[in-house]
């Protein structure tokens, strides 16, 4: 069928409408007219794949990766020129804020992209495909659990790419017969299979990282993101700060350098142990880790808090966590998010009854060539 598509939706597909039905068209750019084939039919919407572009947009480019055309699910936007990727992602973020009834002009959303939007991933998981005794590594084809074998990936660090053949051969060993996926983490001078912690540098500090611990996988943009988060916190040296969902402490250490006291709240026992070690390695004596859920731990704090910084998982905050943070009555909240819909939902909750006002938003492109959106927002207390 022939469709003219409108805005880009979160997920990378462009939106079209036919006979009142919403159709999410993959491989299309807003404004284009395409021939499309329906791939999934549901009661409330359809999914389709563009099979021919009849009226191409000026921002359309040839995807440089051969696996993109073969259906690899790792990237979604390689056919879109990078400046337009940034523009479209900013619009997606702005629409999510609008849907949450948050009035914030799109031209006030700062866009922090990459000079070179390739070879940025320092961590990746590759699935094991066994065929006739031979082993290949690869990614799932989009919308399936079928592995597409690859021997190159343009968004991963070259060190990881070079290691793939050797680890594929190692996986042929009988002792590895039950291995279904390999996760790689790379840092300069260190590459391992994550059977132990690995050293990783950030802003002149050294951290130990394990596979079960969260770490931002784009080191160049991690620095951009954390610099902006610290700037939003407006620390002058005397503040008491809560770092919620603190993980292993990379951002915590940056906050500790500029604050009087930092309370790092983290539920994972593995992350807490690594975080405490990392604070010792980096001489952050003014940081105290508190293990537990954010909603439980913050209600036990006695002293006043000046700033709360949070970087929750993709699902965002539990409503009880939002209330626990709001009840601290901190002057500022800095919210880092990897999902614009949960960011908008939670910011709306913080702003309920006039408690806080959204004053700054920045989109940090942590994952070029994909639909993923990382953002940081600053809220100020108004009541």
Describe this protein's structure:
This protein is an alpha/beta fold. Among the domains are: 1-59, OB fold (Dihydrolipoamide Acetyltransferase, E2P), CATH 2.40.50.140; 96-115 and 218-381, 3-Layer(aba) Sandwich (Rossmann fold), CATH 3.40.50.150. It contains 9 helices and 20 strands. An 8-stranded mixed sheet has the order 6-19-20-18-17-14-15-16, with helices on both faces. The radius of gyration is 22 Å and the shape is globular.
Task: Offer a few descriptive terms.
383 residues, Rossmann fold, alpha/beta, 20 strands, eight-stranded mixed beta sheet, single chain, 25% helix, OB fold (Dihydrolipoamide Acetyltransferase, E2P), five-stranded mixed beta sheet
Number of helices: 9
Instruction: Count the beta strands.
Output: 20
Instruction: Give the end-to-end Cα distance, rounded to a whole number of Å.
Output: 54 Å
Overall 3D shape: globular
CATH superfamily of the domain at 96-115 and 218-381: Vaccinia Virus protein VP39
**Radius of gyration, in angstroms, nearest whole number:** 22 Å
Class computed from helices, strands and strand pairing: alpha/beta
| Residue fraction in strands | 25-35%
> Given this structure, which CATH class of the domain at 96-115 and 218-381 is correct?
Alpha Beta
Strand order of the largest sheet: 6-19-20-18-17-14-15-16
């Amino acid at each position: 069928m022939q469709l003219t598509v409108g805005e880009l939706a979160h997920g990378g597909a462009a939106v079209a409408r036919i006979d009142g039905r919403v159709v999410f068209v993959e491989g299309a750019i807003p404004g284009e007219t395409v021939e499309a084939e329906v791939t999934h039919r549901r009661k409330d919407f359809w999914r389709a794949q563009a099979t021919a572009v009849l009226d191409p947009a000026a921002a359309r480019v040839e995807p440089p990766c051969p696996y993109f055309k073969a259906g690899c699910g790792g990237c979604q936007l390689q056919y879109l020129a990078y400046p337009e990727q940034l523009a479209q992602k900013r619009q997606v973020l702005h629409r999510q804020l609008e849907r949450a009834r948050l009035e914030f002009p799109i031209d006030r959303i700062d866009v922090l992209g990459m000079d070179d939007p390739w070879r940025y991933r320092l961590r990746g998981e590759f699935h094991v495909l066994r065929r006739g005794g031979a082993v290949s590594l690869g990614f799932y084809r989009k919308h399936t659990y079928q592995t597409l074998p690859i021997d190159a990936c343009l968004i991963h660090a070259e060190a990881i790419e070079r290691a793939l053949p050797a680890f594929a051969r190692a996986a042929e060993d009988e002792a590895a017969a039950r291995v279904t996926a390999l996760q790689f983490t790379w840092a300069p001078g260190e590459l391992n299979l994550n059977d132990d912690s690995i050293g990783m540098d950030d802003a002149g500090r050294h951290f130990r990282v394990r596979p079960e611990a969260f770490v931002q996988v784009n080191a160049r943009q991690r620095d951009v993101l954390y610099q902006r988060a610290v700037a939003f916190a407006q620390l002058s040296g005397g503040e008491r700060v809560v770092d919620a969902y603190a993980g292993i402490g990379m951002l915590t250490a940056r906050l500790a350098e500029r604050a009087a006291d930092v309370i790092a709240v983290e539920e994972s026992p593995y992350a807490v142990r690594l975080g405490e070690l990392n604070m010792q390695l980096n001489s952050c004596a003014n940081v105290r880790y508190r293990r537990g859920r954010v909603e439980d731990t913050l209600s036990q704090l006695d002293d006043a808090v000046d700033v709360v910084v949070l970087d929750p998982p993709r699902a965002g905050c539990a409503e009880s966590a939002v209330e626990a943070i709001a009840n601290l009555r901190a002057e500022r909240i800095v919210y880092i998010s990897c999902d614009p819909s949960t960011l908008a939902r939670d910011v709306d909750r913080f702003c309920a009854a006039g408690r806080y006002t959204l004053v700054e938003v920045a989109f940090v492109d942590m994952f070029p060539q994909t639909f993923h959106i990382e953002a940081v927002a600053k809220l100020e207390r108004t009541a």
